[in-house]
Design goal:
About 50% of the residues lie in helices and about 15% in strands. It is α/β, with parallel strands linked by helices. Strands 2-3-1-4-7 form a five-stranded parallel β-sheet, with helices on both faces. Bound molecules: adenosine-5'-diphosphate (2 copies) and zinc ion. One adenosine-5'-diphosphate (ADP) binds next to helix 1, helix 2 and helix 3.
Length: about 210
């Protein structure tokens, strides 16, 4: 099963992608997580990506496409994957399509998690992230058992630098301009499914399960 998650920053793509990955036994691939791991390890890729991420801009397509193609070649992708945060531009979607086509393969679903901008701002201000294992929490909607500590690995939780309000506004602008056109792209391919992302996390997952079976 190959799924693409669409939606604004903070819509809940990662939260739902993790649930899908767990239930359906496919890897959750988040390009944002891969970049953050590279930044943490101070790699060349991390240094390049950080400049864009800090400003709330997109990392250039060439860097992202190379990275995702590398990831697909790993053995855990043989049964599919759930992509979270890729593609974010039409050229990225086209690169994915041609890579799949070259293997006589195709995507199964594009799931768009729909949340209005006003709600995004409040979600992002409460988001806390574990930079060690990738788990995400929310101070009100999904708090960890112990404040500031990751349930899964015990690491201290942080507010992402790019989740500060000014950067979030910038990211929303970038989203509307460069990523939202993917809805039409996948609708034309007959793959787009919209879910109401304003419901609680379990209800959103229920609507996704109805779509992907
Ligand atoms: P969010 O969880 O808010 O959707 P991500 O963790 O997916 O954010 O991404 C964080 C940042 O990483 C983005 O703002 C962007 O700078 C960079 N990034 C992640 N994925 C991509 C991509 N596919 N193309 C370009 N930039 C990306
Ligand atoms: P994305 O990957 O789209 O950027 P996340 O999955 O990281 O979004 O979610 C953004 C924030 O909102 C996180 O703090 C998360 O815990 C919280 N969140 C996710 N889904 C919901 C929901 N349905 N209701 C309320 N808060 C949510
Ligand atoms: Zn953790």
């Amino acid at each position: 099963m190959k799924i693409v998650m669409l939606g604004a920053p903070g819509a809940g793509k990662g939260t739902q992608a993790k649930k899908i990955a767990e239930s359906f036994g496919v890897p959750h691939i988040s390009t944002g997580d891969i970049f953050r791991a590279n930044i943490k390890n101070n790699t060349e890729l991390g240094k390049k990506a950080k400049v864009y991420m800090d400003k709330g801009e997109l990392v250039p397509d060439e860097l992202v496409v190379d990275l995702i193609m590398d990831r697909f070649s790993e053995p855990d992708c043989s049964n599919g994957y759930v992509l979270d945060g890729y593609p974010r531009t039409i050229p990225q979607a086209e690169a994915l399509d041609s890579a799949l086509k070259a293997n006589n393969d195709s995507l199964d679903f594009a799931v768009n998690v729909d949340v209005p901008d006003e709600e995004i701002i409040s979600r992002m201000s409460g988001r806390r992230a574990c930079l060690k294992c990738g788990a995400t929490y929310h101070t009100s909607f999904n708090p960890p058992k112990e404040e500031g500590v990751c349930d899964k690995c015990g690491e201290a939780l942080v507010q992402r630098e790019d989740d500060k309000e000014e950067t979030v506004k910038n990211r929303l602008g970038v989203y509307h301009e460069q990523t939202e056109p993917l809805e039409k792209y996948y609708a034309e391919a007959g793959l787009l499914h919209n879910v109401d992302g304003t419901k609680n996390m379990d209800e959103v997952f229920d609507s996704i399960k109805i779509i992907i079976g």
